Amino acid sequence: MTTDVAVEMITVVIDGFEVTVPKGTLIIRAAEKLGIQIPRFCDHPLLAPAGACRQCLVDVEINGRAFPKPQASCTIPVEPNMIVKTQLTSPVAEKAQKGIMELLLINHPLDCPVCDKGGECPLQNQAMSTGRSESRFTGVKRTFEKPINISSQVLLDRERCVLCARCTRFSEQIAGDPFITLNERGALQQVGIYEKDPFDSYFSGNTVQICPVGALTGASYRFRARPFDLVSTPSACEHCASGCALRTDVRRGKTLRRLAGDDASVNEEWNCDKGRWAFKYLSSKERVSSPLIRGDDGELREASWPEALARVAAGLAGKKVGVLVGGRATVEDAYGYAKFARVTLGTNDIDFRSRPHTEEEAAFLASTVVGLKTTYADIDKADHVVLVNFEPEDESPIVFLRVYKQVRKRSLQVSTVAPFASRGSMKLNANVLSSFDQVSNLTEKSVVLVGERSAEVPGLLSAIAANTTAKIAWIPRRSGERGALLAGALGNVLPGGRPVSDASARIDVQTAWGVDSLPTELGRSTSQILHSLNTGEGLDAVVVGGVDPADISPDALGQLLNTFVVSLEISHSAITAIADVVLPVAAVTEKTGSFLDWEGRERRFDQAIEGPLITTRSDVRILSMIADEMKKPISLPSVASAARELASFGIWDGATVAKPTAPAAPHKNPTGNEAILTSWRQLIDLGSLQSGEDNLAATGRKAVAVISAKRAESIGVANGELVKVSNERGSVVVPVHVAQISDELVWLPRNSENSQTIVTFGAAEGCLVTVVKA
Amino acid sequence: MSKLSPVLSAHWDEADSFTLEAYRRNGGYQASKKALDMDPDAVIQLVKDSGLRGRGGAGFPTGMKWGFIPQNDGKDHYLVVNADESEPGTCKDMPLLMANPHSLIEGIIIGSYAIRANYAFIYLRGEVVHVFRRVQQAIEDAYAAGLLGKNINGKGFDLELVLHAGAGAYICGEETALLDSLEGFRGQPRLRPPFPAIAGLYARPTVVNNVESIASVPAIIANGTEWFQAMGTEKSKGFTLYSLSGHVKNPGQFEAPLGITLREILEMAGGMREGHELKFWTPGGSSTPMFTQEHLDVPLDYEGVGAAGSMLGTKALQIFDETTCVVRAVLRWTEFYKHESCGKCTPCREGTWWLVQALKELEAGRGTSDDLDKLLDIVDNIAGRSFCALADGAASPIVSSMKYFRGEYQRHLDLGSCPFDPIESTLFAGVKA
Looking at the partner chain, which of A55, A103, A182 has a beta carbon nearest the beta carbon of B381? Predict the structure, then answer.
């Protein structure tokens, strides 16, 4: 890593040892560099110093002058000629620390045997290292009612709280959601919410993780396990493209919790509540637990692997087959699909986009995104961040945290091309622009973050691709898309961004794969694959890996009827309900693999659970078995072999696919009560990977229709009253939220309770709907 | 000759002393006129030269504090007056504001002009509604007279003065907690640095001064540094208000040169309650270590009191005679600190909770001399370990009372009860039901 400016280094003496650290380093962290651990509670390296717990008191002298009292080492930066004596060399510091520990414990319930934190508790650990074996306190402890909900998923046990204010500082400084605060004073001080308003934050779970005692606990994990019974595995989050490092904790083969992992260059030490708590789907009763074959009676029945594979091979033989890859495929699985389509099926009809998409987008991805190298660090250094059809708080929450950090730190300029200022945009103090044309003030230090919804606005990606000044990043919502693009799971590119249309690129791939030829015709997109089914001219079979048809269009499921469908799935779904053969695949905790986050950074993870053999095969392994059965092998018997083979390709350095040059669509002119629909997915919604986690679901933001004051007046509704939004296909009825939005627009959440735009209206963006008072 | 030096209190006995008219009649608002003709830096220098030190407790030189404000930095500056007088036993600022509010307003005009502040705030203890009304009226009168607002005295200096009522927390007398409270947050002390002079109110350079310090400025401007320095001692110049309370014949405010002794003040107050003798007293409120009879001749200035092992503090002289149980008095004070601990840091929050319980046991005569040592050890783990000085204040009465009256603590334990009749120390002692 390189730094832009030389950092001034300072040498200090701690317990007789010299250590040289950058200017501004706090004593407590300089000591860490020497391996000297000063006990602490309120200190957290990513939060502003508080100096509240006083546990880290040490003796300090500067230029031969000693401070008269021990100082909190978490608040004082090192200075030249500073001499620090910690508990190891100063009896005063040692006594001060012991005294503080004793005081911390007088009102603590010491209910470690029933506390979730017991076994991994900084208070417990430091009471052992710094406390006395018996308390001298014989008085009456302060008591509170045992846990109270501060949200549906976070519980607060005030008796255990040591009032370090880590949680409140996190909420204010990191998440920008100051919905918990310290109330009352003295020993009655407590963390609290405002009356009946819950702790409404997408990042609330981090407070549970950084709580140094058992005061904040997660409702779902409470009383489920002792830390020493858990087996922990470093993981990567499958929920979005932010790329969070996670830790998956398993007890007896069952995932009991997931924590944010540490990765300073990606998620620092945070994650979002979805990544933390949405994992019940892994152990759902709906999991597919055996290969299934649809019998002549139309019902699925269990089958052996050989029988199921034979049935797949027979069903696909001689057919023209399309491949739909789910957005959460690992890089290795996506590579398996990409190779399977070309080598075994002889087609480029493969697409990883199970969402609204266009040809323009395919060209944008192949031409502009494959080799993009914009990173989180570029956000840290940006002079201007532009969000284009991208709501980071909902669609890539760690990107939100990173931008917010810079907004807080140095008032980073943020612009957003969006219909209105969302709550996230307001926190970023973003300037709302109605189109990309209006973006100005871009330099080579600016960063344009392009959301996947940009594909829904014709011409927009072409305009962005033509931008030559700022750094661009494409941020899909799903964790698998960037990797699937690299793996070649798209109709116009082969692995490493090699254009299908480029003969030398094809030869590259042919050589690597040891095949005589590769299909040359550009592949169909997801919607083209679906539309061509059963038309006589097009495709007549499809292999589907983890796709929810409702994410694509309301017609998608119908298009899959009466065709041969092979479904590789973890759980029963709309696709398995109509599939001819269902093959169970491993979920993310049951396999190894990797994702590429939006930066293109590899996020490798290990298998966390030793599951039954039946469900521990990653997609790529099963595709390899099918290919063998079809006598057109892809020779990828393991995830590791797929990773190795893909890595051998490298990124294509020849001519790329041409940049898109699509024209903008003509402007629609709504009349009367008509409005143009716009929408995005909220972080916590009806997404299939969130199923089964009710505590999380209860914290989702409720569906509202956002309209302008003028429209509200013209249809006679006030804020909070119900409106009906409809077109010829269907309607939704939700409360209205009046905001500064174009009079022509109505915004709805895309996939929330009471508001699912794609299945209801047949489109999520740009279609005309009617808005009336309900 | 009286040892008093009435300046701020010179006209308190006039029926209309609090009015603008009376203040002007007695020469008021001449100093601010004079100051506004001076260069602001010259005003700061004059206050520096006078030797005026903060009257709120710590005794920091006022002019030096003003001089810390970075000038010509293009930022707004603020003057904030700390009128959150809450130290137990202290009653100097409130009477001053009741009887002579314009001395503060004039001092604010001068101070704001010197530090180039166009906004000033008075953070007034919220419980004293009568004082709030009086100061509010005085400010309105000053505005009406063109003494505040735009272009004061036609000198091109603008000053807006805001009176803010606190919500009743002792900690808000701590300057950074005061600033947080004034900004609308919970009053809890801030981490320093940055100090208020660099980033105070709304993160702008701010001077926080006690009422009496600011109110003393007009007289210094009007009469000059020599006049001021003629009063007081070598390093503690000028006059100040001592508030005398407790078992004395005539309690009240005594304005005298710094360095006067309690013996002299007691004489002026008519001595102790009839038939009783001095047992212990505080030089500057309960947060300053207590004194006994042996300290009657300690000069009550910053150095003198400090040399005798205490602090001048707010000059709240609380007098207790021999009928008072020192353990009970200390328990009462400790209950105050427990109630007022803001909760931010561990030693103060948890320590005061524990100390109250420990002292209750001792006052009831339960425990052994080991418990006295334990009490001192707990205090040792609190004092000097906390975020701000509140806990140091809480420790003072315990440590000092144990120093002078450990025997009395022990007597409680020997007897298994308190040897004192609390009625004897009250005003209604001896009155038959």
Answer: A103
